[in-house]
Amino acid sequence: MRFLHTADWHIGKKLHGYDLLEDQAYILEQILTIAKTEKVDAIVIAGDLYDRSVPSEEGVRLLNQTIAAMNLTAEIPLLAISGNHDSATRLATGAPWFAQSNFHLHTRLDQAFKPVVMENTAFFLLPYFEPVDARIYFENSSIRSIQEAMPLVIKKMKEQFDPKYQHVLVSHFFVSGSSRTDSETKVEVGGLDGINGSLLEDFDYVALGHLHNRNALNLPNARYSGSPLKYSLSEKNQKKGVWLVETTGQLNLQFIELEPLREMQELQGTFAHFLNPETYQQLNRERYFSFLLEDRSIIPNMMNQLRKVYPRVLQVERLYGRENSQQLAVKKLKEQTPIELTEEFFTTIVQSKPTKRQQKWIEQSFHQLIKKGGDGDAS
Amino acid sequence: MRFLHTADWHIGKKLHGYDLLEDQAYILEQILTIAKTEKVDAIVIAGDLYDRSVPSEEGVRLLNQTIAAMNLTAEIPLLAISGNHDSATRLATGAPWFAQSNFHLHTRLDQAFKPVVMENTAFFLLPYFEPVDARIYFENSSIRSIQEAMPLVIKKMKEQFDPKYQHVLVSHFFVSGSSRTDSETKVEVGGLDGINGSLLEDFDYVALGHLHNRNALNLPNARYSGSPLKYSLSEKNQKKGVWLVETTGQLNLQFIELEPLREMQELQGTFAHFLNPETYQQLNRERYFSFLLEDRSIIPNMMNQLRKVYPRVLQVERLYGRENSQQLAVKKLKEQTPIELTEEFFTTIVQSKPTKRQQKWIEQSFHQLIKKGGDGDAS
Lengths: 379, 379
Fold this sequence. Notes:
The structure is a homodimer. By secondary structure, chain A is of the alpha/beta class. The first copy, chain A, has three domains: 256 residues, 4-Layer Sandwich (Purple Acid Phosphatase, chain A, domain 2); 55 residues; 51 residues. Chain A starts with a strand and ends in a 7-residue tail after the last helix. Chain A contains 13 helices and 16 strands. Chains A, B: Keywords: DNA recombination, DNA replication, Endonuclease, Exonuclease, Hydrolase, Nuclease.
């Protein structure tokens, strides 16, 4: 069995206000081209197909076109799950019909236990789920977290293991020990739902989604594919691509890089330098830029002037004066998770740290808030 | 060919604030039962499956369950189009896969010209479209209205007529001369997009959606199915149901009534009478009620007291004092279309009636407004 592993398309995501739909259409087309060139048996999509639970019409159109091109026109089987950014209910539209042409889209926990068998491989497609889903499914009201649910989930899958197959898990979670980037929702990857990697060791391969860095996890048999595009400035140095996975015989993993329509580029220099035609005529001005300015003086109308030359400016930072106390404080705030911020605020007001119980309340509240906030801004 | 003709499900619609999902699930189940009992060859759904372009998750779930039960479980072919309340793009999700199991869902004008042939009948599925769609499709920039577009649409369909088939048109428009009810958007049915019924005469049957009254139009070969539920108090005396259509041999139409989960009922009497257990114990209090009060005095906390006994009160009106001048004025305002109101306002301010050209501007503005407002409140 030879398949592509991708995830975290986040169709409809905006980057510092810039609409990425064109970049996304371009990169999804590229994934399809790779799938055809490599003559894969399937494409695995490990969740977060959309960036939000109610995507725009343009986003819906792009996903519909993409899956039709892959599954109906190119006749490539698709194995997909919903992620935490998707509305499982909305994404499920059409799914019972998709299965007729080997497009298996699982959006409910109970579906994870009916493996999809293709050639020598059994795929367990485990969508993102909430503790409440596990409580209902296992009829066990004591399950309070994903960490508590996962051993039961994996055990139930293993009961169906059959030595004549390879076993692949497709899942969308934070595995403990992974490193993260800014474009994932901090509170969710900050430990609350970390799953112990040892739980995954009996699978021949685990195709993960959720983290945007393909190197976020280092296990012999498990990988995050990462997002196909850079969805945050913190990802500017990451290589983006898809895993080509071969499960027949020994596991073979090959990372195939993707070429974005517009790269992300960080530049350092003076404002005058950036506005000098000799500078910008040598650059691909269509890229997404982050500028590190060496100037010390105030520059009136700075952003507008830059954007006249560079239509996609993500950020402008100052090299000098960056570390003054106010900016340091802001920087520190920006690096803290919402939970850390709340705990620090609590400590300042109450003059003592929150108790374990109070910490748990804070964590749970944020978790619920983020869940409810799914329709709001991308995170 | 023997099929059911239904339309205007408006899944997700609220009636005076009351969620109708349960009533809708009940009535859609009943349509399926009729389809099975009558052993129909197909179910035709003539648009407005949803009440709004972005339906709730619960609405999405109900439509997904309904179409799966009809098409996959009961294996009944479905022939459906998008209406003015649906987002064509969102509704189209899954459509290319649906066609594999004889579920033909057309959401674009160009699809109307590829008839779906079943047994002895060719179905032309014409979704709701805008003049701009016709301008692009026919490459004719002079098309400014649906009236101007329809002769071209029908002509192109007729070019494909084949004497060995019966020809059925499925469409979602206002046909001139039809009568309307409150639950349709007034500005759209108020003449702006009225289509001349004579255009339709060469079809063996025209299955229409848009108007909620099955008697809205009287042509020998064309019917509105009406909505399956009463979606406005003005529809309280209408019979709701589906048409059983037989196209083999002479056209045969039979109206099969639906039994709602909760009827709509208008009662006249005194407040004391309605709160008397002897009255309400003889009533099905779960129904949707409209009260016509004979009292003349002020009744404090009236609505709350009524709702304690009758959980679904749509409206309370006074029999006496109803016709005082202020109420008359309000009633008159309520009965006017937005276009009429604007023209009256114009006349009051300018002291002369709007010219034909100004009238056209007003109409066009409202038409665009309503189109844009598709994501807003139900109408």
